[in-house]
Amino acid sequence: MKNWLLFITFILLIKTFFCQLNNELIWSTNTFYPKTVRGINPLENGEHYSSLKLRNGSQEIIKFSYKKNKELGVLFSSKDFNDIKFYDYKVSNDQKWILIATQTESIYRHSSKSYYYVYNTKNRRLESIADTSKGKQRLAEFSPDNNKIAYVRNNNLYYINLNDFKEIQVTTNGEINNIINGATDWVYEEEFSIDKGFYWSNSGDKIAYYVFDESKVKEFQMKMYGNIYPTHYKFKYPKAGEKNSNIGINVYNLFSKRTIPFDLGKNSDIYVPRIMWSKKKDELIVFKMNRLQNKLELLSGRFYSDMPNNTGVRINKLYEETSNTYLDIHDNTIFINENDMVWTSEKDGYNHIYIIDYNNGNEKQITNGQWDVTEVYGYDENNKNIYFQAAKESPTRREIYSVNIETKEIDLLSNGKGTNEAEFSNNFKYFINKYSNADNPYFFTLRDKSGKVLFELENNEELISKMLDFDLVKKEFITVPNEDGIELNAWIMKPTKLDTISKHPLLMFVYGGPGINTVNDEWSGMNYFWFQSLVKKGFVVASVDSRGTGYRGKEFKHSTYLQLGKYETRDQISAAQYFGNLNFIDRSKIGIFGWSYGGYMSSLCITKGADIFNSAIAVAPVTNWRYYDNIYTERFMRTPAENGHNYDTNSPINHVDKLKGNYLLIHGTADDNVHFQNSLEMVNELVNNNKDFDFFAYPDKNHGIYGGMTRLHLYNKMNKFLENNLQQ
User: Fold this and answer.
1) Which of 198, 361, 240, 78 has the alpha carbon at shortest distance from 629?
2) CA quadruple 511, 512, 517, 520: dihedral positive or negative?
3) Per-residue confidence at 16, pLDDT binned at 50, 70, 90?
4) pLDDT of 311
5) Residue 92 included in any domain
6) 3-state secondary structure of 687
7) Element (H, E) at 681
8) How many domains does the chain have?
9) What is the DSSP letter of 644?
10) Do residues 502 and 728 touch, judged by C-beta distance below 8 A?
C-alpha cells in the first residue's frame, strides 16, 4: 500500500511538473498547436475536394467526396518520389495535372519563390516546369483550358505548353529593383495584399499582367549581419509623400505573340489595386484609384483576338465610387453574368452587398442594417444566392449567411457563437465550416448549403483535453466607456481568486490600427497561452478596441482619419482609468504591450498617458509616420505636405519628454515592413531627453521576429520586464 501511494505521488508530481504553463512549453514545443484541415482545394465538378495529409511520414493529396466524406483515392504521394517536400499545390480543372511547389523560399510577407513541378495523374510522371538552373519560379498557375502554366522568374513572365513543356518568354526587360513583370512591388504586396501580377483570360489564350517601373522609387537598405563584413539588402520602398512605381497593364495574346497596353490615362500618379477578367469575352476590368485613395473607377477594355495591328483598345468607365475619407480595397467583386457584378461598399454607413449593372450603372442594395459584411464567398446561379460572412450578431463574432438577390431573404448557415469561416464547393452544394471561439481551438465540419452538419472533420479533442490540465481561465467579453461615453468592446482575463487587498497588476494588449480588431471571439493562438501564463503569475490581462477599429460601421472606423494615434490613445487611456478603478486592479501598476501599430500605440500611451501607465513594451513600432510606406500612411493621413502637423503631433518621437515609466523597445534589424530606423530614431530622442529605457535588437530578424529560439527569447525578455516593473 505504501509503495502504491508513493507511486501515485510520483505520478502527480510528474503531471504537476509538465502542467506548468511557461514560455518554454508555449514557444519551444508544439504542445498547444491545434490540428487543422490542410490544403483544402474544391475540385471542378463541385462534388469533390482535395486535402493535404501527412501519413506515415509522407505527404499525400487525397481526393474526397463531399456527399459521403469518403476518401476516393490518393491523387499524389510524396513517397513515390523520394518523399519530396512541398509547401503548396494546385489541381488543374480537369484533374489531369497537379502543380506542387518545393524548396519554397519567402521573399516578403506574402511572396515566395519555389521550384515548381507538375505531376501527370494519368501517366504518373513528375517533371520540373522549367530548367532549375535558371532559378526558382514564382506564382505558377494553370490556364483555364488546362493546357498551360504561367509563372514569373527574375521579374519576367513566362509560360509553358503542357503538351511539350516548351518555355515561352513573354517579357524580357525584367530587372531587380527596376522593372517587374507579372508580379507586384513591395508596397502593393504589403498594402493591397497581392503579389501575383498576371491573370489568364477565361479562354486561356491571353494573359493580362502588371508592369512596375521602380526606377524612380527610392531605395531602402538593410544591413544583414552574420558575416565578417555585413552585406546590404536593397529594395524599393516608397515612404509617405515619396514617388511610387509607374504602373502599366498589358495584355499578351498567345497566338499572335502581340502585347497590347491598357490605356490608364495621362495621370501616372495612380494605383491599380486589382485587375480581373469579366464574363464578357475578352473583357478586362481594371480598378483605377487616385493617390489619396478616395476615388475608385472600374475601367473596361475589350481585347479581341482578331484586332488589327497597332489598334488601340477602347476604354470605358463602368463604375465609380468616391468617399470623403478613403475607400477600402476588397476581393468581393464577382461577375455573375455579362451585365451584373456583386460589389460591397460602405456607402450607406456599413459594409453591404450590392448588385451593380455595369452597363447602365443601376445598382440594387442586397443587404442592409447596422452591421458589416466581412467577406463574400461566391454566387450560386442556380438558386440566385450570394454566400457571405458577416459580423451581424456582434463586431466580435463572424457568421456564415446566404442571401437571395431577388427576395433579399437572409439565412444563417452557421451555428457556433464565435468566429466562422467557410470554404464552399464549386457548385455551392457544400461548404467546410471552420469554427473557433476565444477559449476553444478550431472545429471543422462539412455542411450542406443550408448549413446542416453532414460530417465532423476535426474537433481538436486532444488539445482541448490537454488544456483542461492547466486550469485555464475564460476570456470575458465586456464594454468599457471612453471619455466621450462611447462603449468600447473589450475582453479581460482574471485570476480565479481575485485579491482586493494587495490587488493585481494589469497588462493591456493593444493593436488599434484602422479596421483591425483584437477583441474577437476567436482562437488567438500562442498569445492566448502566454496571457494565461501571466494570469497564473497574478496579472490581469485585457484588450480594448478603440475608435478606428472595424465592424462597427464607417463612422466609427473612419473617425481617426487624418489623425492616426489621437483618438486611439485617448481611448486606451480611458480604458486604463476604468480598469484602474476596479477594486482588484493596482492602478499604480498598469502596463501596455503592442506589436507594429500596437507598438506605436504602446509608445504613445507611455508618453501621452505617462500618469496612467507604469510600463510599456513596444515591439517593431512605427515611431513617425514619415518613415512608413505611402499607400498605408496616405490612405489614413494624406501626405506629409498636406497634413504634416498631424504627422508630428501624433508621433511618439515627439513625446518622449513626457516619459515617466518603464519602456522596453524591441525591433528586428531586418524588418522590411516597419524599418529598424523607427526604433533607432526613438532611441535618439530618448537619449537626447536623458530618459532611461530598455532596448533590444534581434539581428537579421524581420517584422515577425521568429526563427530558432527567437520567440522564446523574446517572450522571456518581456516576462522579465513585466515581472520586474509590475510585480515588484
Assistant:
1) 240
2) positive
3) very low
4) 56
5) no
6) helix
7) helix 677-688
8) 1
9) H
10) no
* C-beta neighbour count of 431 within 10 angstroms: 25
Residue 497 · residue 581 · CB < 8 Å? no
Q: Residue 261 carries which DSSP code?
A: E
The pLDDT of residue 87:
85
Nearest to 466 by CA among 541, 531, 529: 529
HEC letters along 364-430: EECCCCCCEEEEEEEEECCCCEEEEEEECCCCCCEEEEEEECCCCCEEECCCCCCEEEEEECCCCCE
Cβ atoms of 241 and 639 closer than 8 Å: yes
Model pLDDT for residues 521-561, shown as the tens digit of each residue: 999 999 999 999 999 999 999 999 999 999 999 999 999 99
Enter the DSSP assignment of 473: P
> 641 lies in a domain?
yes
Distance CA 687, CA 282 (A): 61
Task: From 688, 687, 681, 654, select the one nearest 667 (Cα to Cα).
Answer: 681
Cβ pair 97, 146 in contact under 8 A? yes
The answer, yes or no, to whether residue 17 has pLDDT greater than 90, is: no
Are 171 and 151 within 8 A, CB to CB? no
CATH number, domain containing residue 704: 3.40.50.1820
Task: Give me the residue label for grid cell 491571353.
Answer: 206
In whole angstroms, give the CA distance from residue 514 to residue 532: 27
In whole angstroms, how far apart are CA 500 and each of 102, 541, 586? 57, 16, 9
pLDDT at position 1: 52
User: What domain range includes position 541?
Assistant: 471-727
* Per-residue model confidence (pLDDT) at position 19: 66
pLDDT digits (tens, 9 = 90+) for 569-588: 999 999 999 999 999 999 99
For 52-76, the pLDDT digits (tens) are 999 888 999 999 999 999 999 999 9
In a domain, 341, yes or no: no
Q: How many CA atoms lie within 13 A of 311 on its CB side?
A: 11
Across 548-570, b (16+ Cβ under 10 Å) vs e yields: bbbbbbbebbbbbbebbbbbbbb
146 is a domain residue: no
Q: In whole angstroms, give the CA distance from residue 72 to residue 49.
A: 10
pLDDT value for 433: 98
